[in-house]
């Protein structure tokens, strides 16, 4: 790394510099991780214990009572998690298939109006969410009358523009020759997509799937707007109702928050490579 | 000739496949993006009622100029943006430069740590932060500043410290994405540039100043523009932590639009405000590209 090299290669000063930078990184890491750490240790405290005791930085004792309390508190606690799972899974699958297909069409198939449509899609990404939220709410709740259904939770997200863009970026880099030769062998576009493009784009589609799943698992705003019935709420919305239910139930709330975060942490640590890649893919080529 | 015809047919066949492949995407787009945008424009000229809205022309927009709360919300959003986005850029750039020379496994470890809060849900973390900012003397932050001899603060409950509390929260976490993007950009700088600089006897800070910062300008611009766009739409933290209070000291435009629409059911006003917000974001983005991006090519 000659970015860091120096003329007087005094190994002692290099060591010191390295140690200092690692210490800074660790201190900042501690700040970053603190809320998560605090959430997890508090979730193991006694369920009904308000006041000073629950502020301690080290766990006083470990008990699973708060978790039990969380599931007993609302009859829908388990349902919330199930709802989140259903919504996030449907949206993810749909995005991988339909955004993948659209991305392929925009990257490799010639058809009239292609550029106009793609530009329109790109421009729409710059429109703030606030513009869309009101009419979207009126459309789903007042016109379609489908509030408190899975359809209302899932429909608006079925084919994200950003995902189309990601798929197109990647698929543009695939050589035309493979598509041409598949055509000569007598494949139609659907066969080309399923048998050649899909397998070749596995990485980008995995990145897309993971980011989409995470987004939908953590999303709060839209489910909050369209679900008033507690049985149809997702875990994020459920957590919020828990918060206002009774502010002294801190530990059970943290237990709920930990349960909500746990699947994402597991997913993150087992598929870290794709997460970290996903962050860069959109930015560097953007 | 025959071959030419066949090719023509094949391409024509492709047209149809193209439309089939984008069909679902296009339907979803028209229904849930294009239609709402057009509809927002129409609603903004109306006094919205579920059964038959009345056309009131520019009244919703005219009202905004006199609306003190809207002006305050814009001011709050501007303050929030000015104090979060540049700070986030400096922090993530510094961290990225510190991580970059480390061994591969350490790089991955720190990247994962800094990205972790993005994986957890905003609702859960904001509840934790509420507890950190507890106004009682036992509250974590109050304990911490107690050690420094500063008296008890009513963090989120006082209009003096409420905005500061939200800023502090954003400074201490949420830089993971930018750090990872900066590291990727650092990896893209050719080694030979640094070698040449070494021959000229450049110090570390000189290399930073004359090589790294100029070459990372496109990345910085990207993060700046997306950061400002995101910050102008900020909603979650104000909604969960303060509800815009106290005394509207943390009411952001995003929260105000939400309240007008879903608390006061004044859809016309909310639509007009959201379109003004979109216009402000567009103007600022163009401004940034124009003044900072003159030598950046994509």
UniProtKB/TrEMBL annotation, chain B:
Similarity field: Belongs to the binding-protein-dependent transport system permease family.
Bilayer-crossing regions: 16-45, 78-100, 112-132, 164-189, 210-236, 274-292
Pfam families found in the cross-reference section: BPD_transp_1
Recorded superkingdom: Bacteria
Compartment annotation: Cell membrane
Membrane-related topology note: Multi-pass membrane protein
InterPro entries registered for this protein in UniProt: ABC_transporter_permease, MetI-like, MetI-like_sf
PROSITE patterns: ABC_TM1
Protein name from the UniProt record: Sugar ABC transporter permease
Chief location of this protein within or outside the cell: membrane
Record has Oxidoreductase as a keyword: no
PANTHER family referenced in this protein's UniProt entry, alphabetically: ABC TRANSPORTER PERMEASE PROTEIN, INNER MEMBRANE ABC TRANSPORTER PERMEASE PROTEIN YCJO
Keyword tags: Cell membrane, Membrane, Transmembrane, Transmembrane helix, Transport
All residue ranges annotated as the ABC transmembrane type-1 domain in the record: 74-288
Keyword check for Iron-sulfur: no
